[in-house]
Write a structure and sequence with these properties.
Length: 322
């Protein structure tokens, strides 16, 4: 069977969360069913949550089926050689109406040993933030396990954590082991390794309708934690109609394209490319067609679609593996 290369979209996988809201509907027009929808998984290869194609000739096939049929054409030569038919990244939009739990993610080695999973290196791009919104990202100063446990037990953990006020366009890179929480009033785009391993440390003493709190992973988090102060916020340029680097790590590269007019794109066939439209509207044209997109759309460009044109007024996150 010959592969037909076109921009692929997927049905969002919507996740109801105790801290979620309704901005995924009001801002992105996602088909949420509850007023506490916290996440829209845009492209996922996580077991049990495999994305389904929503457009074109492959509509109805899930991501795994597509990769089984056309691994190199979709993923790219180098990505296929490294990951086989496993899709290596997870793309989300997150609406935090309330604070998320304070948590940490394990690195590859620990995640493989404990869960037979990838670790969870991730980044955030702030799309909207209510006045006074903040993130918790790492320790204020270098710490240690003893100080951390003492403050956790005394419910004074916030006193040693770094709280950073945020606004639209701020970007953060969180290596595994970084203690963190997304604060209330924030909508963001998240790019991460394909993993759903989270160690929840503190959940603000919240309980559900039955009076039960969510499970905490205090002991698991101890070995996963980086107790040193870390720089997480990323500064980046915003030159129009070109790719401006935000994060370049071994797991993914993320650029921002402030699109104002037309941009011709020529990519290698070593990696797929994903565009997350974080503002505005644009059209993508390729040899066999054209399609319009808007804020909240996520598009997978297969590696074999290596030449196309972007045109419009939009801000695009451009993600690939280098």
């Amino acid at each position: 069977m010959k592969f037909e290369a076109y921009p692929i979209q997927f049905n969002p996988i919507l996740k109801d969360k105790i801290w979620g809201g309704d901005k995924l509907k009001t801002v992105f027009h996602k088909p949420i069913k509850t007023e506490t929808t916290g996440e829209s998984w845009e492209i996922s290869g996580v077991k049990g949550d495999i994305s389904e194609v929503s457009n074109g000739i492959y509509a109805g096939k899930n991501l795994n089926e597509l990769l089984d049929l056309f691994p190199e054409a979709v993923l790219g030569k180098a990505v296929h050689e490294k990951f086989g038919t496993d899709f290596p990244l997870l793309f989300k939009f997150i609406d935090a109406k309330e604070d998320l739990s304070i948590q940490v993610h394990p690195n590859d080695e620990l995640a493989q040993k404990r869960h037979h999973s990838f670790g969870k290196t991730e980044m955030w791009y702030i799309m909207q933030a209510d006045p006074g919104s903040r993130l918790i990202v790492g320790f204020k100063e270098d710490s240690n396990a003893s100080e951390y446990i003492q403050n956790l037990e005394n419910k004074t953990l916030l006193s040693i954590l770094d709280e950073v006020p945020v606004g639209e366009g701020d970007a953060f890179f969180l290596e595994t082991g970084t203690i963190h929480a997304i604060g209330a009033g924030i909508v963001l785009a998240e790019i991460q390794q394909t993993s759903d391993i989270t160690y929840r440390i503190y959940d603000w003493d919240r309980v559900d309708a039955e009076g039960k709190g969510r499970e905490l992973h205090t002991e698991l988090a101890l070995e996963a934690m980086n107790y040193n102060k870390t720089a997480t916020q990323r500064k980046y340029s915003t030159a129009k109609n070109q790719s401006n680097s935000i994060v370049d790590c071994k797991y993914f590269t993320t650029n921002i394209i402030p699109l104002d007019g037309k941009l011709e794109v020529v990519r290698s066939t070593d990696s797929f490319t994903v565009y997350m439209c974080v503002d505005g509207n644009f059209e993508l044209r390729w040899d066999n067609g054209a399609q319009s997109y808007g804020k909240g759309d996520t598009i997978l460009i297969p590696a074999y679609l290596d030449h196309y044109t972007l045109e419009g007024n939009a801000s695009l996150l451009e993600i690939y593996i280098s």
